[in-house]
Structure formats: C-alpha cells, structure tokens
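## tool: complex_structure
## caller: assistant
## args:
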Amino acid sequence: MGVGIEVINLNAWYGTNHTLQDINLHIPANHATALIGPSGCGKSTFVRCLNRMHETNPIAKVTGTVRIGDLDIYNDAKPVEIRRRVGMVFQRPNPFPTMSIYDNVASGLKLNGYTNRRVLDEIVERSLINSALWDEVKDDLKKKSGASLSGGQQQRLCIARALAVDPEVLLMDEPASALDPISTAKIEDLIFQLKSQYTIVIVTHNMQQAARVAEKTGFFLNGRMVEFDSTHKIFTNPSDKRTEDYITGRFG
Amino acid sequence: MKLETYKFRSRMRALTDGAVTAMAILATVLVVAPLVAIFGYLVFKGASSLNLAFFTHVPKPPGETGGGMANAILGSGILLAVASSIGVPIGIGGGIYLAEFGRGTKLANAVRFTADVLNGVPSIVMGLAIYSLVVVPQKHFSAFSGGVALGIMMIPTVCRTTEEMLLMVPHAVREAALGLGVPNWRSVLSITVKTASPGIITGCMLAFARVAGETAPLIFTALGNQYWSSSLNQPIAALPLQIYVYAISPYDDWHRLAWAGALVLIVLIVLAVSLVRYVTSRGVLKGAS
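## result:
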C-alpha cells in the first residue's frame, strides 16, 4: 500500500544554484500527484529529493524534512533503503542493456541478494502484468535483452522493474515525454491502475496528461511551489495569477 | 536558384561524395595491406618448415637437422598465463577505480599519469627493471620473472581501456541501478562493469596480443631454454626469444625454423583472441547492445 509524503521546508542546491526554495506540501497516499511547470523550475529536482537521488551528484545539497509514511528519510535511514521504498521511473527508458527482460525486472531483488527462484518467477510475472507488458514479452522473457524492446515497451519494463521491489511510492520523472501517443496512452492507463496500490508522483510537461491522471497538481516556478491544489481547481480556477498564465499558455 | 546552378551544384556534390568514398576505401586498403602482406610472407617463408615435429620436438643442437619449438610454444603459453593473471586483474581494478570511485581525485590523476608513462616505458627497460627487482634477488632467471615483466606491461593498456569503456556506459544506466536501492559498489560491479565488458575484454586482448610478441623484456628474465621446462622457477623458452635466437644464427636450417616460429606465433595469437571472443560472446542476448 502507498503512504503519504510530508515535505517541510525543503531546500536544494546544485553548487551555488538554489534550485528549490522552501517547499512545503503534503502528497496524499494512493493518489496520483502531478507536478507541472516550465523547464528548469525545479520539479525534477524535487522528485529526486524524495528518494535521495539528488545527493548522488557531488555538488548537490539538500536541507529540510521529508517524511515518507513515518520515516524521516534524511535522518532515519540510508539512501539505499529509501530507494527500495521509493521507486523511480526516469524520463528516458533505461533498461539494463546486457540483461534479459526477466533479469531486468528481477534486477532490484537479485542485486540486493535475493535468490529464491520460485518467488522471483512469481514477482517478475506479477510486475510485468501490473505494468501491462506481460502479454507482449512472456515468450521471450529470458531470450531477449531489455534493450531489444520498443521505447514504449522499455518504459513499461522500467516500471515493472521499479514495481518488483515492492515500493510504497512511485516517482515518475516525465515518464512519457520520449514516447509516441499510443505508448503514452498505455503509460497513463497504467498510472490510473497503479494508484490503487502506490502513491504516485509524476512530473510532466504535458498539462493534459496532468489533468487526465492526477487528483492533485502542484505548479512550480523558479524553484518555488506557487500553488498546490486539486487538479480540477488548478486547471479551472487557479488562485495564483502565475498559475493561470502558465495554464493558459501565456508563458512557459 | 537557377536550374543551371542547381544542376552544377548537384554534380559537384556527387563528385565530392565519390572522391571522399574513394579516399576512405583507399585508407582501408592501406590499413589492411601490411597485415595481409606480412601474413602472406610468413606463410610463404614459414609454412614449408612446419611439420608435426615442429610442435612436438625441442630444438636440436646446431648442425643436426630437424627439431621443433614445442618447448617455446609451451613456454609462451606459461609466460602469458602468468602475465595475464597479473596484468588483467590489476589493470581492470585500476580502471574501475579511475572511472567509478576516484573520479576527479588527485590519486586518480596520479594513477592515470603513471599508467600513461608506464605505457611509454621501452620494453627493454622493463626487462632490466624486473632483472634487478626479481632475477637478482632470486639469483636465477625464471619463467616467473618473465611473466611478471610481461604482466606489468599489460597493466596500462588494460587499465586505460577499462576506464574509457566504463565512462562510455550511459549515466542513465547507473541511475537506474541506484534508483532501485542497489548499493554503489554492487551497481558498479554488476551493472556498469557488465555493460562495459565487451570493450574491457577487447582491451585485455589488445594487451595480451601485444606482450605475446615481446622479446626484449624476456632477455634478462625468462632467458630462453633449449630444453623442456614447465617450471616457473627455471629459465623458460618463448616463441619470440626462440625466433630472435634462430634468426640471428648463421644456420639456414634455423632461419627456416625462425620463419615457421613467427607464423605459429601469429596464428596462436589470432586463435587465442578468437577463442576468448567466442567464449565471451556466448550468452549474449538477442538485441543486447
């Protein structure tokens, strides 16, 4: 089951560049939350702070509190433990090119020392079913490389890989921006189904996409969160002038 | 644009295209030609002296006909096994450090610089160094010291190609592993190195083929041997050494054996490299890049 995320006074830097400033918000459990805003507004940095990927860059710095469920991720646990509970899907599909489809999905478990074959088989099948890829790949699981799939299939493979470690939260950083419309529609359907089991945070440039998949939407601008509200409210009656300008296409 | 101008430019483009293609083909021929020429000449001079005895007998004393290089073939094999077991792990380990753990540190820069300098050390100097560091303290020439000399010569090539190949692995692949909660060391070994392994293996093969033909570092270390020996503690024969000794000898019979030895050396290197390629390419999946 998904858990809620509480963000308190989050600040982040790249070198001297203050990319996130005083972010406070509550992301509800088992819902999809969309983050929108122009390029460079900090929304990608924000999701990368939720699984401590931001700090993998040597010049990056973070202050503030992020609570995932009951866990204060910057004080109570190591980054690797957080990342097992908070899965991530990246902008460009990035399957492991030397691994089979099966091994890609099982990689998170295998690389953490999990070896029980029967359980792995089950988890791989369930994850691929959940990511709506099973029917397309079930005959080639161990024969084909993850890199041999089409872009849309690769992205669903990456989702399956993230689901296999059984996270509570799924972060998606523009998961469909490199995909064609049909693959995009499949990913969106998937998000719709997955949010019953996971808390989903999705960064997107595509405002229709945000409107289609998310109950809540946050609007980021220049490293600050301008507005956070129900998606319906953001797109029909935003309280901030800047949100309205962005939504109506006056900039960004 | 006028039609005339258009036609003229189009013709010029076709001409340029043809010229560049021709130059590329010429360059390819020039690259391949020396290899084909050398190999052809070796076959021409050496193949006639090849017989079963060459692979099964040890050298005969001067004046007697016949004899072979069986001990030198075995000796080269032993020397290269020792060399690879030193050069490959140290080289790959150093390359992993340079690309993954030490990036941007002073130590890494020093290691990289040292590797490049080591690569430029003349092989005869390497032989002398190992002579004073291994042979003199042990008080005798040995297969071991020859293997050490060759092994150290492999390190810089293996190290730098490993580094280059690891740096070519896309950042996205590393992030994917980290995003799954995989510890960094595990992600480096199981994901990054594995993804780069075809290139790393090529680097090892390059280093292997290069030292397989080295003579100078063996003169003061392995020394050479006219008799059977497979001991690491005894002087040992090696194909390049044997070729050298036979080629500068005054006997026609030995000259012919030297040509045959050179042919065998090249063929064995090609076989060894092909074998490693074949073994490591099995299990590569459909569509893997």
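## assistant note: The CA atoms of residues 243 and 261 of chain B lie 6 Å apart. Chain B has a mean pLDDT of 92. Handing back to user.
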